[in-house]
Structure formats: C-alpha cells, structure tokens
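Appendix B.2, paired examples.
Example (i):
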Amino acid sequence: MPVSNSSSQPRSPKVLRMRALTERIGLSRSEIYRRIKAGTFPQTLSLGQRSVGWLESDIDAWIDALSQRGDA
C-alpha cells in the first residue's frame, strides 16, 4: 500500500483563536490588543461577525522576528 507524502501536498493555512494564541505566546488578551494597536503585533483575521483569529504563519514570523532582535 503506497504511503502518501503529506509534505508534497499544499497545506491550508492554520488559524489560531485567542485561547490557543495566549497559550502559545504567553501574553494576555489585553496585551495582545495593546500591541496590535501599537502596530507591533500581527493584525486579526475576521472569521465572522464576532470572531477573529490570527494566521499561524504570521505568529510564527512575529516570534522569529522577536528572537532575531533578542526580545524572546
């Protein structure tokens, strides 16, 4: 039985909701929105009328940028 190589198939972008985001980066909800307002954190992605999320790739890039600066 052939095994499919999942790395060759394009992956759809993963969206992180607030709970997963706060657990992953260790910042509070209010601090996240403070940094969005200041322009130092990735913008939200609208998922519906009252629902937002963040692209995991944007968060990964933000974390990488922090580690490059030495802030992580």
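Example (ii):
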Amino acid sequence: MEEMAKMASLSGRPAKGRRADWLTELVWKRSLQLTVLYPRDMLLDIAGEDGEFLRRIGQGKHDVGLAGICATPQLARTARYRVPEADIMYAELDDFPWLNQSFDVVFSLHSVPLLRDPQAVLSEVLRVLKPGGQFVMAAPWLPKPLRILANRWLVDDSKDSAPIPSKAELVTCLEDAGFERVAWLRLAGMRSILVGWRP
C-alpha cells in the first residue's frame, strides 16, 4: 500500500484516501492569479519541492518555459519525472545555475529556505530576472502577539525552521534587495503573498 501511494505521488495523481492541502491549493491559485504571464515567457520555481506546481502550470494553457530548483537530489529526480519538459536542477538557493536575466517570472512558494538567508536568495532572484520581471513569494503570516510567541517557542536552528517576519519586514526585505512596486496580500490561514518587480 505504501508503495502504491509513493508511485501515485510520483505520477501526480492523488493517492487513495489522500486529502489535498487546501492552503497550498489557495496559495498556488492566488499566486497564478497575481502573475503576469505571456506566451514564451520563462518561469522559475525556486525551492519547488516535488515539481507539482510546475506540473500544473505545464498542464494549463500557459505556453511558457519551465525551470525549477529543488532542495535535494531526490526531490529534483521526482520533479524531473513529474515535469519532463522542465529544466529542474538541484542547487543551493544562493547560487542559481542560470545566466543573468534568464527568466520573466520567479516563484518562491515554499518560503522557509528563502527566509533563512533572504538577502542571498533575493540577490540571486534579482540576478536571473529580466528587467521588468516579476517575483511572486508566499510567506507565513501571524498577528504580532502570535508571531512573537511562535518565533520564541517554535523556531530552532534546524534547516526546516525560520522566524516568521512581519508584513513590514517582508516588504522592506524585498525593497532592500532592489525590487520595486512591492505589494503584500494576506490570505486565509497563516499565509501571505508578496509581489515585486525588477527595475
């Protein structure tokens, strides 16, 4: 049974009895609604996990080139299997394996790796974006009292942990990195989306 669930996840079909993560679905849907995509645009998904988001874009009516960065070789292999038309790499988030100004849109919908070292990652995002390119980032959000408690008690030194920034900290972080017209949108639950543009 476990092997069947594993194969189903690789194929992109839901495993029997597996429930969709409604918040992830909401982030993906809202991110695409906020994205300006034209035919033949190049799109990069950083920290893209298993390639599911790229697979859905590839199945949609978007005639765009797809690329992604995964956090482990195993995730990169799974993503390549799911999205064979995409250029999927295993790489560090502070050293993208693409040339300057390669992409029209960059997504970061799994934000923990980015939030651990935002300036290094954002400088790479800015480097690979074309002038006028769009950056769409999902980030956790909590009201101030809950954010203070969560950062004090739940954040540790593991690679799966990063402090939850405030709205002002997120916007300032993108602006300091060089993005313009930064906008922040709160979603349901504990998520938010930021959009910034490369000058």
